[in-house]
Amino acid sequence: MNKQILRAAAKQKRNQLTKEQRAQFSKNICEFILASPDFIEAKTVMCYCAYGSEADISPVLEQALLMDKHLLLPKVYLLEGSIKALEIKDIAHLHINEHLCTGAYGILEPNEQSCEVVETQKIDLVLVPLIAFDKHCHRLGSGMGYYDKFLPLLRSDCKKCGIAFAQQEIEKVPAKAYDIALDYIVTQDGVYINRTR
Known about the structure:
25% helix
């Protein structure tokens, strides 16, 4: 099936969740993440700021800082067609101010004037937002290709974790041979693990 049709259908299911459902499901997702050994042991974690009806993982961002982890957030570089990981160093920086501002596509992202770029090889765990996924941990993103370019730059032992609501699961993501499947995907109902790794 066409990727655009799959994206539209998955996004519609996500958008149909009530505000209360999204809040509860997001809380469940955060609990799974915070209890995972990969998060607990990671020194450098890349997260994201939720946009629209995406799962809100802001408690994970705050906890990462409270645990003295290096917290990174993606910044879109439109001219390069890429994202880079910039470090947020304080909980106070997680609010719209000189450190966090509305960037490309209306998504909150770090301000490169006050936040430093961190090399991808230093990242231990990356939490990836997505539009749809299948049971084999293949992801369907927004279609812009930012994470498709970013994920191959990570260390081979860096854990790649997709974040989604269970309603976003589809039967099969049309993946190419070069597409990188995630290590696992966390939903409010549990964790899908990539058994091929």
